[in-house]
Amino acid sequence: MSRTPATARLMDGSGLARRLVDETAARAADLTRRTGTQPCLATVLVGEDPASVTYVKMKRARCEKAGIRSRHLELPATTTTAELVAVLADLSGDPDVHGILLQHPVGPGIDERAAFEAIAPEKDVDGVTFSSFATMGFGLPGFVSCTPGGIMRLLDAYDVDPAGKRAVVVGRSAILGKPAGLMLLARNATVTYCHSYTADLSAAVREADILVAAVGRPRFIKGEDIKPGAVVIDAGYNPGNVGDVDFDTAATRASLITPVPGGVGPMTIAVLLSQTVDAAERQLA
Ligand code: NAP
Questions:
Q1: Is domain 146-265 annotated with CATH 3.40.50.720?
Q2: Fewest Cβ atoms closer than 10 Å to its Cβ: which of 45, 167, 239, 253?
Q3: pLDDT surpasses 50 at 240
Q4: How far is 237 from 235, CA to CA, in rounded Å?
Q5: Closest-lying ligand 1 atom to the alpha carbon of residue 268
Q6: Global pTM exceeds 0.90
Q7: pLDDT one-digit tens code per residue, 241-263
Q8: Which of 59, 123, 165, 178 is catalytic?
Q9: What DSSP letter does each residue of 146-178 carry, written as one string?
Protein backbone atom coordinates (compact mmCIF):
# COMPACT_ATOMS: atom_id res chain seq x y z
CA MET A 1 0.00 0.00 0.00
CA SER A 2 1.46 3.38 -0.89
CA ARG A 3 1.52 6.00 1.81
CA THR A 4 0.36 9.59 1.34
CA PRO A 5 3.50 11.74 1.28
CA ALA A 6 4.11 14.20 4.08
CA THR A 7 2.78 17.66 3.31
CA ALA A 8 3.58 19.41 6.58
CA ARG A 9 6.38 21.92 6.90
CA LEU A 10 8.86 21.11 9.66
CA MET A 11 9.22 23.56 12.53
CA ASP A 12 12.96 23.74 13.08
CA GLY A 13 13.44 24.03 16.83
CA SER A 14 17.17 23.34 16.63
CA GLY A 15 17.75 26.31 14.33
CA LEU A 16 15.48 28.61 16.34
CA ALA A 17 17.16 27.55 19.61
CA ARG A 18 20.59 28.24 18.10
CA ARG A 19 19.53 31.73 17.10
CA LEU A 20 18.05 32.40 20.55
CA VAL A 21 21.23 31.17 22.28
CA ASP A 22 23.40 33.35 19.99
CA GLU A 23 21.24 36.37 20.73
CA THR A 24 21.33 35.55 24.47
CA ALA A 25 25.13 35.20 24.41
CA ALA A 26 25.41 38.61 22.74
CA ARG A 27 23.16 40.15 25.43
CA ALA A 28 25.18 38.43 28.19
CA ALA A 29 28.44 39.78 26.76
CA ASP A 30 26.99 43.27 26.44
CA LEU A 31 25.69 43.23 30.03
CA THR A 32 29.04 41.97 31.35
CA ARG A 33 30.83 44.74 29.45
CA ARG A 34 28.50 47.45 30.69
CA THR A 35 28.21 46.40 34.36
CA GLY A 36 31.36 44.37 35.00
CA THR A 37 29.11 41.56 36.24
CA GLN A 38 28.49 38.35 34.39
CA PRO A 39 24.93 36.94 34.52
CA CYS A 40 24.85 34.00 36.94
CA LEU A 41 22.54 30.99 37.12
CA ALA A 42 22.59 28.92 40.31
CA THR A 43 21.77 25.26 39.75
CA VAL A 44 20.71 23.13 42.69
CA LEU A 45 20.76 19.35 42.49
CA VAL A 46 19.46 17.11 45.26
CA GLY A 47 20.66 13.51 45.18
CA GLU A 48 22.29 11.65 42.32
CA ASP A 49 19.50 10.65 39.94
CA PRO A 50 21.45 9.97 36.71
CA ALA A 51 18.97 11.76 34.42
CA SER A 52 18.97 14.84 36.68
CA VAL A 53 22.78 14.81 36.87
CA THR A 54 22.95 14.75 33.06
CA TYR A 55 20.36 17.52 32.62
CA VAL A 56 22.15 19.82 35.07
CA LYS A 57 25.50 19.13 33.44
CA MET A 58 24.02 20.00 30.05
CA LYS A 59 22.45 23.21 31.34
CA ARG A 60 25.72 24.31 32.97
CA ALA A 61 27.72 23.57 29.83
CA ARG A 62 25.28 25.63 27.73
CA CYS A 63 25.51 28.48 30.26
CA GLU A 64 29.26 28.54 29.96
CA LYS A 65 29.11 28.62 26.16
CA ALA A 66 26.68 31.54 26.29
CA GLY A 67 28.83 33.58 28.70
CA ILE A 68 26.59 32.92 31.71
CA ARG A 69 28.35 31.99 34.95
CA SER A 70 26.92 28.98 36.73
CA ARG A 71 27.14 28.32 40.42
CA HIS A 72 26.39 24.71 41.19
CA LEU A 73 25.22 23.27 44.50
CA GLU A 74 24.95 19.55 45.07
CA LEU A 75 22.99 18.39 48.09
CA PRO A 76 22.73 14.83 49.41
CA ALA A 77 19.56 12.80 48.87
CA THR A 78 19.03 12.97 52.65
CA THR A 79 18.47 16.76 52.49
CA THR A 80 15.31 17.85 54.30
CA THR A 81 12.74 20.31 52.99
CA ALA A 82 13.84 22.86 55.60
CA GLU A 83 17.49 22.55 54.53
CA LEU A 84 16.65 22.91 50.85
CA VAL A 85 14.38 25.88 51.54
CA ALA A 86 17.23 27.52 53.48
CA VAL A 87 19.67 27.02 50.57
CA LEU A 88 17.19 28.46 48.04
CA ALA A 89 16.37 31.38 50.33
CA ASP A 90 20.10 32.15 50.62
CA LEU A 91 20.48 32.12 46.83
CA SER A 92 17.36 34.28 46.51
CA GLY A 93 19.01 36.88 48.70
CA ASP A 94 22.45 36.68 47.08
CA PRO A 95 23.04 39.66 44.79
CA ASP A 96 25.65 37.71 42.79
CA VAL A 97 23.04 35.17 41.66
CA HIS A 98 20.51 36.30 39.06
CA GLY A 99 18.60 33.11 38.28
CA ILE A 100 17.90 29.92 40.22
CA LEU A 101 17.20 26.47 38.83
CA LEU A 102 16.15 23.70 41.18
CA GLN A 103 16.50 20.50 39.18
CA HIS A 104 13.33 18.51 39.63
CA PRO A 105 11.82 16.13 40.53
CA VAL A 106 13.69 16.57 43.80
CA GLY A 107 12.90 13.07 44.98
CA PRO A 108 10.81 11.61 47.74
CA GLY A 109 10.71 13.13 51.17
CA ILE A 110 10.98 16.75 50.03
CA ASP A 111 8.05 19.10 49.70
CA GLU A 112 8.86 20.30 46.17
CA ARG A 113 6.28 23.09 46.23
CA ALA A 114 7.74 24.51 49.47
CA ALA A 115 11.17 24.44 47.83
CA PHE A 116 9.95 26.18 44.65
CA GLU A 117 8.26 28.89 46.69
CA ALA A 118 11.62 29.68 48.37
CA ILE A 119 12.85 30.93 44.99
CA ALA A 120 12.47 34.70 44.69
CA PRO A 121 10.05 35.45 41.79
CA GLU A 122 12.60 37.79 40.18
CA LYS A 123 15.07 34.85 40.00
CA ASP A 124 12.56 32.18 38.94
CA VAL A 125 14.04 31.70 35.46
CA ASP A 126 12.61 28.15 35.25
CA GLY A 127 9.06 29.46 35.77
CA VAL A 128 8.09 27.15 38.62
CA THR A 129 6.75 29.46 41.35
CA PHE A 130 3.11 30.34 41.97
CA SER A 131 4.06 33.91 41.13
CA SER A 132 5.29 32.90 37.67
CA PHE A 133 2.14 30.83 37.14
CA ALA A 134 0.02 33.85 37.94
CA THR A 135 1.86 36.10 35.49
CA MET A 136 1.66 33.40 32.80
CA GLY A 137 -2.05 33.01 33.47
CA PHE A 138 -2.70 36.72 33.15
CA GLY A 139 -0.36 37.14 30.20
CA LEU A 140 1.72 39.65 32.18
CA PRO A 141 5.49 40.09 31.90
CA GLY A 142 7.38 37.58 34.02
CA PHE A 143 9.19 34.30 33.69
CA VAL A 144 7.49 31.43 31.90
CA SER A 145 7.91 27.68 32.17
CA CYS A 146 10.75 26.98 29.76
CA THR A 147 9.26 24.26 27.53
CA PRO A 148 5.92 26.03 26.99
CA GLY A 149 7.88 29.26 26.51
CA GLY A 150 9.80 27.47 23.76
CA ILE A 151 6.54 26.28 22.20
CA MET A 152 5.19 29.85 22.05
CA ARG A 153 8.41 31.05 20.45
CA LEU A 154 8.14 28.30 17.83
CA LEU A 155 4.57 29.35 17.03
CA ASP A 156 5.67 32.97 16.71
CA ALA A 157 8.64 32.06 14.53
CA TYR A 158 6.28 30.33 12.07
CA ASP A 159 3.70 33.14 12.19
CA VAL A 160 1.07 31.04 13.91
CA ASP A 161 -1.17 33.45 15.78
CA PRO A 162 -3.14 31.52 18.44
CA ALA A 163 -5.88 34.20 18.60
CA GLY A 164 -9.25 32.71 17.70
CA LYS A 165 -7.78 29.25 17.10
CA ARG A 166 -8.93 26.12 18.85
CA ALA A 167 -5.92 24.85 20.81
CA VAL A 168 -5.98 21.38 22.33
CA VAL A 169 -3.34 20.52 24.92
CA VAL A 170 -2.99 16.83 25.73
CA GLY A 171 -1.37 16.64 29.18
CA ARG A 172 -1.67 18.94 32.19
CA SER A 173 1.60 18.63 34.09
CA ALA A 174 2.76 21.66 36.07
CA ILE A 175 5.87 22.10 33.94
CA LEU A 176 4.38 21.55 30.51
CA GLY A 177 0.72 20.98 29.69
CA LYS A 178 -0.85 23.33 32.21
CA PRO A 179 1.36 26.36 31.52
CA ALA A 180 1.22 25.72 27.74
CA GLY A 181 -2.57 26.01 27.91
CA LEU A 182 -2.36 29.14 30.09
CA MET A 183 -0.03 30.81 27.61
CA LEU A 184 -2.22 29.89 24.64
CA LEU A 185 -5.25 31.25 26.48
CA ALA A 186 -3.39 34.47 27.25
CA ARG A 187 -2.82 34.74 23.48
CA ASN A 188 -6.57 34.39 22.89
CA ALA A 189 -6.80 30.78 21.76
CA THR A 190 -9.84 28.74 22.79
CA VAL A 191 -8.14 26.12 24.90
CA THR A 192 -9.16 22.55 25.70
CA TYR A 193 -7.09 20.46 28.10
CA CYS A 194 -7.11 16.68 27.78
CA HIS A 195 -5.73 14.29 30.38
CA SER A 196 -6.07 10.74 31.58
CA TYR A 197 -9.72 11.28 32.56
CA THR A 198 -10.76 12.76 29.21
CA ALA A 199 -13.60 10.87 27.54
CA ASP A 200 -13.21 10.51 23.75
CA LEU A 201 -9.79 12.06 23.41
CA SER A 202 -9.82 11.49 19.64
CA ALA A 203 -12.88 13.72 19.25
CA ALA A 204 -11.15 16.52 21.15
CA VAL A 205 -7.92 16.17 19.15
CA ARG A 206 -9.86 16.31 15.87
CA GLU A 207 -11.05 19.83 16.80
CA ALA A 208 -7.52 21.19 17.19
CA ASP A 209 -6.20 23.96 14.96
CA ILE A 210 -3.16 23.89 17.26
CA LEU A 211 -2.36 20.62 18.97
CA VAL A 212 0.16 20.39 21.81
CA ALA A 213 1.03 16.82 22.71
CA ALA A 214 2.57 16.57 26.20
CA VAL A 215 1.70 13.08 27.36
CA GLY A 216 4.89 11.03 27.59
CA ARG A 217 3.52 8.09 25.54
CA PRO A 218 5.19 7.13 22.28
CA ARG A 219 3.13 7.84 19.11
CA PHE A 220 0.03 8.28 21.26
CA ILE A 221 -1.66 10.78 18.91
CA LYS A 222 -2.60 9.21 15.60
CA GLY A 223 -2.47 10.96 12.26
CA GLU A 224 -6.10 10.14 11.47
CA ASP A 225 -7.14 12.41 14.37
CA ILE A 226 -5.20 15.41 13.10
CA LYS A 227 -7.43 18.08 11.56
CA PRO A 228 -6.21 18.81 8.03
CA GLY A 229 -4.04 21.93 8.15
CA ALA A 230 -3.49 21.79 11.92
CA VAL A 231 -0.29 22.95 13.59
CA VAL A 232 1.12 20.02 15.55
CA ILE A 233 3.53 20.63 18.42
CA ASP A 234 4.98 17.43 19.80
CA ALA A 235 6.59 18.09 23.18
CA GLY A 236 6.89 14.40 23.99
CA TYR A 237 10.28 12.80 24.28
CA ASN A 238 10.21 9.06 24.73
CA PRO A 239 12.98 6.44 24.63
CA GLY A 240 14.37 5.98 21.12
CA ASN A 241 13.86 9.65 20.17
CA VAL A 242 10.15 9.10 19.66
CA GLY A 243 7.53 11.78 20.23
CA ASP A 244 3.95 11.60 21.49
CA VAL A 245 2.61 12.03 17.95
CA ASP A 246 2.77 9.40 15.23
CA PHE A 247 4.88 11.67 13.05
CA ASP A 248 4.62 9.87 9.69
CA THR A 249 0.82 9.83 9.62
CA ALA A 250 0.37 13.23 11.29
CA ALA A 251 2.72 14.90 8.78
CA THR A 252 0.38 13.94 5.92
CA ARG A 253 -2.40 16.10 7.41
CA ALA A 254 -0.74 18.88 9.43
CA SER A 255 0.38 22.16 7.88
CA LEU A 256 3.26 22.55 10.35
CA ILE A 257 4.76 19.95 12.66
CA THR A 258 7.69 19.74 15.07
CA PRO A 259 10.09 16.86 14.56
CA VAL A 260 11.39 14.74 17.46
CA PRO A 261 14.21 15.32 18.08
CA GLY A 262 14.95 18.85 16.88
CA GLY A 263 11.57 20.46 17.56
CA VAL A 264 10.46 21.50 21.03
CA GLY A 265 13.37 19.85 22.89
CA PRO A 266 16.21 22.27 22.06
CA MET A 267 14.03 25.27 22.87
CA THR A 268 13.79 24.47 26.58
CA ILE A 269 17.39 25.22 27.57
CA ALA A 270 17.51 28.15 25.13
CA VAL A 271 14.58 29.77 26.96
CA LEU A 272 16.22 29.06 30.33
CA LEU A 273 19.38 30.88 29.23
CA SER A 274 17.43 33.75 27.72
CA GLN A 275 15.39 34.21 30.91
CA THR A 276 18.58 34.12 33.01
CA VAL A 277 19.95 37.06 31.05
CA ASP A 278 16.55 38.81 31.32
CA ALA A 279 16.78 38.38 35.11
CA ALA A 280 20.33 39.70 35.24
CA GLU A 281 19.44 42.69 33.05
CA ARG A 282 16.58 43.62 35.38
CA GLN A 283 18.64 43.12 38.56
CA LEU A 284 21.68 45.00 37.30
CA ALA A 285 19.73 47.88 35.74
P1 NAP B 1 3.77 13.96 33.07
O2 NAP B 1 4.04 14.82 34.25
O3 NAP B 1 3.87 12.48 33.20
O4 NAP B 1 2.32 14.33 32.52
C5 NAP B 1 1.70 13.59 31.52
C6 NAP B 1 0.33 14.12 31.25
O7 NAP B 1 -0.26 13.29 30.25
C8 NAP B 1 -0.59 14.07 32.48
O9 NAP B 1 -1.33 15.27 32.57
C10 NAP B 1 -1.49 12.88 32.22
O11 NAP B 1 -2.81 13.01 32.69
C12 NAP B 1 -1.54 12.86 30.70
N13 NAP B 1 -1.80 11.51 30.23
C14 NAP B 1 -1.12 10.37 30.53
N15 NAP B 1 -1.70 9.32 29.93
C16 NAP B 1 -2.75 9.79 29.23
C17 NAP B 1 -3.76 9.19 28.42
N18 NAP B 1 -3.78 7.88 28.19
N19 NAP B 1 -4.69 9.98 27.87
C20 NAP B 1 -4.68 11.31 28.09
N21 NAP B 1 -3.76 11.94 28.84
C22 NAP B 1 -2.82 11.19 29.42
O23 NAP B 1 4.72 14.33 31.85
P24 NAP B 1 5.42 15.73 31.46
O25 NAP B 1 6.53 16.01 32.39
O26 NAP B 1 4.40 16.77 31.21
O27 NAP B 1 6.08 15.29 30.06
C28 NAP B 1 5.30 14.89 28.96
C29 NAP B 1 6.22 14.56 27.80
O30 NAP B 1 6.98 15.69 27.46
C31 NAP B 1 7.26 13.47 28.13
O32 NAP B 1 7.51 12.72 26.96
C33 NAP B 1 8.49 14.26 28.48
O34 NAP B 1 9.71 13.55 28.22
C35 NAP B 1 8.37 15.43 27.53
N36 NAP B 1 9.06 16.66 28.00
C37 NAP B 1 9.87 17.26 27.13
C38 NAP B 1 10.52 18.42 27.53
C39 NAP B 1 11.43 19.12 26.57
O40 NAP B 1 12.29 19.87 26.96
N41 NAP B 1 11.22 18.90 25.30
C42 NAP B 1 10.36 18.95 28.80
C43 NAP B 1 9.48 18.31 29.66
C44 NAP B 1 8.84 17.15 29.26
P45 NAP B 1 -3.17 13.12 34.29
O46 NAP B 1 -2.81 14.51 34.68
O47 NAP B 1 -4.65 12.86 34.33
O48 NAP B 1 -2.34 12.08 34.97
A1: yes
A2: 239
A3: yes
A4: 7
A5: 40
A6: yes
A7: 999 999 999 999 999 999 999 99
A8: 59
A9: HHHHHHHHHHHHTT---TT-EEEEE---TTTHH
